[in-house]
Amino acid sequence: MNVVKKIFDTSRSDQKIAANIYYSSSPAISSDKKKRLTLLLAHANGFHKELWEPALTRLFSYDAKDWLIDQAIALDSYNHGDSAVLNRPSIEAEETSPWFMNARDILAVIAQLGQPENIVGVGHSWGAVSLLLSEIMSPLTFAALIITDPVLYSKPIWNKKLLEITMKRRCEWPDVGAAKAYFDPHPFFGTWDKRIRELHIKYGLEPVSKSPAGQKLMLKCRPVNEAAVYAGSYHASPHATDNLWKVQCPTAFLTGEKSDLSPEDYIKGITSPMPDCQHVVMKSASHLLVFEDPDQTADCYADFLDSFAPKLMIKNPAVPPANL
């Protein structure tokens, strides 16, 4: 899998979106019968674009399919990952980050791609809801959606305890060794696939100063920014839930059996008005299924793409990512 880095404009003049554009390292398959896809990936709160890489590596390995991934564009939301590094002066004192803003940024990125057909949105948690909001704002922007354990509330919720816990989260380490010693045995991160933990340490932290002990590191997404996103769910999440009936494109929900945010019966109820929707529950998985088992997650995504393929259009090959 090859990667090209790209900076996009947001829906605001003073902020940017950092993205990784992935494409297969195998020779291009020439076929006028395969449905050629662009995946657009939106991450969960507190995380970043590189955590999609294990799942994408597996998705790109599929060849005997009716679909072909031309490129996969993984975004860092404006206050996360490399985007946070770019936008630091404007996000240092955030109080709230409305989810509608993330949705508008996704639409702004798509407007800069120049190829509206067969864009399949793939989102996790906050990113999943942001994709739904984008589709609600601009119907049929996406050819299809894959919604992974979304945070879809039925009413506005103000979780003060969650905000307080987030603001107290440890966010700096004296060096990479100390960071690894923290993340690897931690009960929260310890259930993740080893590749995901390594990617989080490598790409989720930034050097901020040097000390005799080494290079001091901090989370690119500071606790204040993560908390701002939680605060920004208040109106946006129930708005998405109430307007799911407006999502007309084929949509697949993937949730964790152990997730307390997406119980099976609840998801079944809120998605019943959607005209073209399927729901799969991943056994033994939690809300963070993308991190716990990226290979099984990718296999589920591949099954979804199989089901989408007959409904998608055959199009000419996309512009190579390096030329975007």
How would you describe what is shown here?
- It comes from Coemansia spiralis.
- This is AB hydrolase-1 domain-containing protein.
- Pfam families: Abhydrolase_6.
- InterPro entries: AB_hydrolase_1, AB_hydrolase_fold, Carboxylesterase_BioH.
- The protein has 12 helices and 11 strands.
- By secondary structure, it is of the alpha/beta class.
- It has a single domain, classed as Rossmann fold, CATH 3.40.50.
- The strands form 2 sheets. It has an 8-stranded mixed β-sheet with strand order 1-2-4-3-5-6-10-11, with helices on both faces.
- α1 crosses α12, α3 (99-111) packs across α4 (126-137) and α5 runs antiparallel to α8.
Number of strands: 11
CA-based gyration radius:
19 Å
**Which percent bin holds the helix content?**
25-40%
The main pleated sheet reads as: 8 strands, mixed
> Strand-and-helix sequence, N→C?
EEEHEHHEHEHEHHEEHHEHEHH
Report how far the terminal alpha carbons are from each other.
Answer: 17 Å
**Relative strand content:** 15-25%
Low-confidence residue ranges:
317-324
Across the major sheet, the strand order is: 1-2-4-3-5-6-10-11
What is the CATH-assigned architecture? 3-Layer(aba) Sandwich
**CATH third-level topology:** Rossmann fold
How many domains? The number is 1
Number of helical stretches of at least 4 residues: 12
Q: Name the overall outline.
A: globular
Give the rounded overall mean pLDDT.
94
Pfam family, one: Abhydrolase_6
Organism: Coemansia spiralis
InterPro entries: AB_hydrolase_1 (IPR000073), AB_hydrolase_fold (IPR029058), Carboxylesterase_BioH (IPR050228)
Domain AB hydrolase-1: 39-299
